[in-house]
Each structure stands twice: as structure tokens, then as C-alpha cells.
Specification:
The protein has 281 residues and is an alpha/beta fold. The protein folds into 2 domains: 161 residues, 3-Layer(aba) Sandwich (Rossmann fold), CATH 3.40.50; 119 residues, HUPs (Rossmann fold), CATH 3.40.50. Helices cover 47% and strands 20% of the residues. A 10-stranded mixed sheet has the order 3-2-1-4-5-10-9-6-7-8, with helices on both faces. It is elongated.
Length: 281
């Protein structure tokens, strides 16, 4: 791994995002690029909406004043973003990350991440953003879109960082989790850590046993368990049982139309697990 792309928005998850990023960067000897995106569409919406409702006689002077106010708000947003990035760089360097780059962009987070991840090996983002409803466990509005669009592994940071010692791989035998196994075998990210592969089913498959053996051969202390039940319930219980700090899982193995009808195990697990999740699509 050479570069980690960390996304920060100044939410309560920002510290955790940076701590997860520094953990991964130190283990992989990676450089870090911190991204802050100013949503220009959202910032301009108020001005557009109000101006469209005003008449010409009353509009000119007021619209000029409103435009000045919007410009001031945009300037403050840019300055706030710059301060967030400066703080992020200091926190990462204080944690032992040698190479840190920061960038502020205008636009939408998903498009910015998609463009910048080409030069990254891992994307780190918070489970929820500034506008999420914490009481209802709503995920950040951009999170699912980032995971669906990203071709890189996405580390979804929980609200607080805890030293990662025990890892759970939600094993379903699909192509996404096989991609995760390959990545973990080739990366130093989880080397030396305890890792349990949990399969929601009655019996172990040859593929599960082979994946466990490959992880062991690569330096990960891996074991496997088969537990009957629904995947979300099985994984959630296993996280508590093994005192897991990180869940590794595949993402969105079926069509989006199917998710509209019966929901998504990926989204449900990311929402319900109180720990961080490393997602592979």
C-alpha cells in the first residue's frame, strides 16, 4: 500500500477517521492524502431558491445583499475547511505518519473520491457525517454512494477509534470477500492480528477452509467458524463474542433494485455494528 485517502468533514467522526487513517498508514508505511469537499451545489441552493421567488422591483438591491452574504458564507466555509485540513495534517504527523498531503475541492464528495482514489489503495470515511441522525442510526448520506462507486477498499470508521487487535471477516464466499482475502494476504494491514472468519451456515466449505489457510500463511492469526442463522444476526453476535474491533465484509452483491425491495445486508451491518467496517466491492 502506498497511499491512503482520508475524507473529513468536521463532524464528530473526524478524529476517529484520522486515528483509523494513522493506524493503517503506520502498519502499511503509507502516505496519506486528506480530502475536504465543499458542496458548492448545497451552498448556492438558498440563493437560487429565494431569487426565483422574488419580483424584479424588489429583487435587485436585496439580491445583491444576499449574494454578498452567500459569498461571505462561502469564504467562511473555505476557511473552516482549511483549518480542518491543517488540524488533520498535524494530528496525523503527531501520530507518526511521515507523509501527509491535504486538498480542498468544490463539488460533491462521491465524484471527488472517485477521481482521487485512482492514486490510493484505501479510502477512509466516517460512518456518519455532519447531517446524519445519530438517534436513528442513520448512515451518512454519501456513505453508500461512496462504497458503491469506489473500486478501492473503504474503511468506514466508527465514532471512536479503539486499538484494532481482533478482526472478523464476514465470509459468504462471494467475489467481494474473495477480493478482500487477496488484499489482506498481500497487505501488511492485518499481519499478526487475530482474525476469525465467520460464515452464516451449518457447515464449512472448502473455499472457507482454503481462505483461512491462505490468511494463516500470510501471517494473520486466522480461525474459522460456521454459525447457523441470518448473516446480520450471526455477525453482530460474533462481534460481541470475540470483542472485535474491525469487521471485514463484501459489499452489495445484488442489484440495487433488489435492495429497494428487501434491503441490503451490507447497509444493515454497517449501521448495526458499533465497530469500524472495512468494505470491499
Amino acid at each position: 500500500m502506498k497511499t491512503i485517502l482520508a475524507c473529513t468533514d468536521g463532524s464528530v467522526y473526524s478524529a476517529s477517521i484520522l486515528d483509523h487513517t494513522s493506524w493503517a498508514a503506520r502498519r502499511c508505511e503509507a502516505a496519506v492524502r486528506v480530502l475536504h469537499v465543499l458542496d458548492s451545489h448545497r451552498e448556492q441552493a438558498e440563493l437560487v431558491d429565494i431569487s426565483g421567488a422574488m419580483g424584479l422591483d424588489t429583487g435587485a438591491a436585496f439580491l445583491a445583499e444576499l449574494a454578498a452574504l452567500e459569498e461571505k458564507k462561502n469564504r467562511l466555509a473555505r476557511e473552516r475547511g482549511k483549518a480542518l485540513l491543517e488540524h488533520a495534517a498535524k494530528r496525523l504527523k503527531d501520530a507518526g505518519v511521515e507523509t501527509v498531503d491535504t486538498i480542498q475541492e468544490h463539488g460533491e464528495l462521491v465524484e471527488s473520491v472517485t477521481a482521487m482514489e485512482r492514486d490510493a489503495d484505501l479510502v477512509v470515511i466516517g460512518k456518519r457525517g455532519e447531517s446524519a441522525d445519530f438517534a436513528k442510526l442513520h448512515l451518512g448520506s454519501n456513505l453508500e454512494r461512496v462504497i458503491r462507486a469506489s473500486t478501492r477498499p473503504v474503511l468506514v470508521a466508527a465514532r471512536e477509534f479503539h486499538p484494532i487487535e481482533n478482526v472478523l471477516i464476514a465470509y459468504d464466499g462471494g467475489p467481494s470477500i474473495e477480493k478482500a482475502i487477496r488484499f489482506l494476504c498481500e497487505s501488511p494491514l492485518l499481519k499478526g492480528l487475530a482474525c476469525v472468519l465467520v460464515h452464516a451456515g451449518e457447515m464449512a466449505s472448502a473455499a472457507l477452509e482454503e481462505s483461512t489457510a491462505r490468511l494463516i500463511a500470510s501471517g494473520i492469526n486466522a480461525t474459522a467458524e460456521c454459525i447457523p442463522g441470518h448473516p446480520e444476526e450471526v455477525v453482530t453476535a460474533a462481534v460481541s463474542k470475540h470483542r472485535v474491533n474491525l469487521v471485514v465484509m463484501g459489499a452489495y452483491g445484488h442489484s440495487r433494485l433488489r435492495h429497494l425491495v428487501i434491503g441490503s445486508t451490507t447497509t444493515s451491518l454497517v449501521r448495526s455494528c458499533k465497530v469500524s467496517v472495512l468494505v470491499f466491492r
